[in-house]
Amino acid sequence: MHGLGTDINVNDINDRISFCNYLAVAQIFLQDNFLLERPLEPDDIKPRLLGHWGSCPGINIAYANLKARFPKMQFILGPGHGFPALQANLFYDGDLQEFFPSATHDKAGIEYICKNFSWPYGFPSHSSPMTPGVVAEGGELGYSLATAYGAALGRPDKLVAVLIGDGELETATALASLNLNKLLNSDGNGHVLPILHLNGYKISAPTIYGRSSERELMQLFRGFGFDPVFVDGTNTEQMQYALGDIKKNTFIIMQTPKGYTGPREVDGLKIEGNCASHQVPLPNAKTDPAQLKMLEDWLKSYKFKELYERFAFEN
């Protein structure tokens, strides 16, 4: 596999990422006016804002690029607290509707998934076993790579892509799981494609790997027997070239800013590219008119109405 390939459309991938970014934000914040058919009002905002935004853009980038290149791959998500992104992608592909019939590809379906996120008797804020394809609670970090190798065990025709958070890689379990490359890298097992999501920050501090140089990261993964590739995740064409040339030991290091495409600064505090984007970047959107306006501008930046009209028509 080399290059972009004739069936890869970079614009379609970027549109999907924007679509899912919008839905991730809408799930965290909105209880009404889900398509922004009128200016946002305080009553449109949920009374309790709960969720994790910071990892969502990177999850959407990885998922969209992988699905375009490997539509039948199995995807394992390490930072399951970024559940709004996972749910947005399951909705986009129609996987969610198979288990939750109300998640239809129309305005009612969008209202259903957004209103019921972090809502009583609705969807949880982390990925959980009620989510199609999920077997473990998404608040537990460290097990994704080991789970990926287990899923590929004895399945030589299977591709398992696993997204590992850079904070997650600081856990003992994740680090020890890097050794599985040497233990299970054989023709009798499937292909595990690890992707480190290098966004530089965990919940309240920089990550060790976010403060490491590219050379240090390359040496680390080479020491575990991988062939690391450093990729700018915000460049879809670059991502596709990397995915089009994977080998048995490829380890992708995908760098994106924490909270990419979200608010850059709120009340003098840096948000995008900082740990402050980890959870809810605009915590006072319901009571602060300035934050409410920032939320509206943020949502409008994805041009969702145009994407939605095309999406609803195609599906």
Give the secondary structure arrangement, pairings included.
Layout: H1 10-29, H2 56-69, E1 74-77, H3 83-93, H4 95-99, H5 107-115, H6 144-152, E2 159-165, H7 172-177, H8 180-184, E3 191-198, H9 214-223, E4 227-232, H10 236-243, E5 250-255, E6 265-266, E7 269-270, H11 289-300, H12 304-314
Parallel strand pairs: 1-2, 2-3, 3-5, 4-5
Antiparallel strand pairs: 6-7
Helix pairs in contact: 1-2, 1-3, 1-5, 2-3, 2-10
In CATH terms, what is the fold-level topology? Rossmann fold
Morphology call: globular
Write the element-wise H/E pattern from the N-terminal end onward: HHEHHHHEHHEHEHEEEHH
- Per CATH, the class reads Alpha Beta
**Domains (count):** 1
Proportion of residues in β-strands:
5-15%
Report on the biggest sheet.
5 strands, parallel
Low-confidence sequence ranges: none
- Strands of the biggest beta sheet: in what spatial order? 1-2-3-5-4
Helix content: 25-40%
Span between termini: 30 Å
CATH architecture type? 3-Layer(aba) Sandwich
Structural class: alpha/beta
Write down the overall mean pLDDT. 95
Looking at CATH, the homologous superfamily is Thiamin diphosphate (ThDP)-binding fold, Pyr/PP domains
Verbal overview:
The chain is of the alpha/beta class. The chain has one domain: Thiamin diphosphate (ThDP)-binding fold, Pyr/PP domains (Rossmann fold), CATH 3.40.50.970. Helices cover 38% and strands 11% of the residues. It has twelve helices and seven strands. The strands form two sheets. The chain has a five-stranded parallel sheet, sandwiched between helices. Strands 6-7 form a two-stranded antiparallel ribbon. α1 packs across α3. The radius of gyration is 19 Å and the shape is globular. 48% of the residues are buried. The mean pLDDT is 95.
